[in-house]
Amino acid sequence: MSLEAIYNAVLSGNAPLAKSETQAELDAGTSAESILNEACIPAMTEVGRLFEIGDKFVPEMLISARAMSASMSLLKPLLAEAGVEQVGSVVIGTVAGDLHDIGKNLVGMMLEGAGFKVIDLGTDVSPQKFVDSVTEYSPDIIAMSALLTTTTKSIINTIEALNEAGLRDKVKVMIGGAPVTQDFADRAGADGFAPDAGSAARHAKQLLAA
Ligand code: B1M
pLDDT tens for residues 127-162? Predict the structure, then answer.
């Protein structure tokens, strides 16, 4: 039982072990915040780094994300009670007309692992629903995922809808997905683009600092 054991359980994607080690560490008096900041987040940061350099692959990233979620299921209520500050909040969704959600879910999990509060609107999210979410949740970032060439147009429509609602300057917009490129992001008027889930979490932090 140690923070290192939780770190290793998340890194290796062992969800039952991550959960039992987290419970043991909490029982021993370690704060939820310490477990999050000194074990879970560093483990997910390492997973993201290994993914970016090609030493981990999507399935391994998913099982690490699940292990982190198992630990987070115990930590979340305690963090909320303690009023621990999140690094920021993100509304995430797959854009209108698009039902692919595996990448979006991965990005959401990595953002959670990096300390963001994540509000997931699901798939096939209309521009209006993204617009409404800005008023409802006041997120720092709207994160849009698109997997089809045809649905990248929904990203443009959503950014236009934010402009028309007068809300564009209230929120940063980050986009990604297989057909999305930095060039497309620049043309669409997004604030940020990330090619994969590992760099999405890092990029979201940079957007907050910008
Ligand atoms: Co579909 N599909 N699919 N599909 N599907 C693709 C995307 C396709 C490339 C397959 C192909 O033809 N080779 C093709 C799109 C072609 C194109 O437009 N360029 C395609 C098609 C055509 C379709 C349908 C139209 C098929 C049909 O019905 N005729 C249909 C469309 C349905 C719809 O959405 N309206 C369809 C349906 C489906 C399924 C439902 C069967 C299923 C989705 C299940 C689900 O998601 N729950 C599915 C799947 C599984 C795929 C493939 C095989 C795998 C996608 C995936 O999950 N990859 C895909 C082919 C492929 O990609 N090889 C394909 C793994 C995932 C981890 O990667 O989603 O890329 P990805 O996410 C990455 C990055 O892109 C990035 O980070 C993630 C992790 O690193 N990222 C972000 C993603 N979002 C981000 C957001 C960010 C930052 C980074 O910031 C906000």
Answer: 999 999 999 999 999 999 999 999 999 999 999 999
* CATH for 7: 1.10.1240.10
Is 80 strand, coil or helix? helix
pTM: 0.84
* 5-50 pLDDT tens trace: 999 999 999 999 999 999 999 999 999 989 988 999 899 889 889 9
Q: Where residue 133 sits, what CATH number does that domain have?
A: 3.40.50.280
Same domain assignment for residues 153 and 55: no
Counting ligand 1 atoms within 8 A of each CB, the residue from 62, 147, 203 with the most, and so the one to mutate, is 147
Number of domains into which the chain is organized:
2
Shared domain check, 10 and 110:
no
Q: Rounded to the nearest 5 degrees, what angle is found at the Cα of 63, between the Cα atoms of 99 and 203?
A: 65
Ligand 1 centroid–CA 21 distance in Å is 35
Mutate to test the pocket of ligand 1, among 52, 60, 95, 100 (most ligand atoms within 8 A of CB): 100
Question: 3-state DSSP helix/strand/coil percent for the chain, to nearest 5?
Answer: 60, 10, 25
